[in-house]
Amino acid sequence: MHYYNFHIGDYKSHTHHLSLMEDLAYRRLLDFYYLHESPIKQRDIARQIGMKDFEQEVLTVLDEFFISTENGYIHTRADDEISKYRKFTEDGKKGAAIRWAKAGYSPPNATPIATNNHKPITNNHIYTPIGVSDSVFQEFKSLRKAKKAPITERAIDGIRTEAEKAGWTLEQAMTECLVRGWTGFKAEWVVKPNVADKVHQTVPSKFERDPTLVALDESIKNAKTNPEMIAKIREALKGKVA
């Protein structure tokens, strides 16, 4: 479901005791539940709703407002709303079939849209990920389509994983893709390597002689330099080079 009734008074009376992060977790869990119309699996749910750093708050809300079953966590009131929605869309299908039959045509295979706010779920539809604005996601889908790269759940999960490596949100990664014309995203494309990881030796180590002294020794050996001048240079270099 892309839409559901939200009763502000009921919600406030049941959630006034929640902390800010618990309240946010509950709202996101509800959105996730209505969007997928199925029980919530505890494993990795905090990451899926964009709250992996607040897993304890997410689990607290799950235990208080959802019911644990062998299939996952369910929400009875949400299930009632989902049942009403499904009945509504089913009635819409039947009504469309009757209208087509009266007109002397066979009804098309496409599922009719009951209202502008209620959009039926199809197997090939990719919903806007949680935490990403619809405008950014639609632009990203258009970009992928223009470059003949179909949008899939696996592609989105891959971008999300790389975004987390870079310390970015999924929306930030998709926005960067739009700016640069990328169909995919890699953390290494936006994260600069740490210069501390590379050691650049600019002076001789304590186990090596200074190249200047080595050159002087060679000069003395080959008798190509004035010994007095060499002595002066050595004296000037004392304390400055190893």
Task: Note the topology.
Elements: H1 8-15, H2 20-36, H3 45-48, H4 55-65, E1 67-69, E2 72-74, H5 76-102, H6 134-146, H7 153-165, H8 170-180, H9 211-222, H10 227-237
Antiparallel strand pairs: 1-2
Helix pairs in contact: 2-4, 6-8, 7-8
Calculate the terminal CA-CA distance, rounded to whole Å. Answer: 75 Å
| Total of domains | 3
The backbone outline, from C-alpha atoms, is elongated
What is the average of the pLDDT values? 79
- Portion in strands: under 5%
Computed over alpha carbons, the radius of gyration is 33 Å
Low-confidence stretches: 110-123
What does the largest sheet look like?
A: 2 strands, antiparallel
Counting DSSP H or I runs of 4 or more residues, the number of helices is 10
DSSP strand count: 2
Order of helices and strands: HHHHEEHHHHHH
The assigned structural class equals mainly alpha
- What is the helix content? 40-55%
The neighbouring-strand order within the major sheet is 1-2
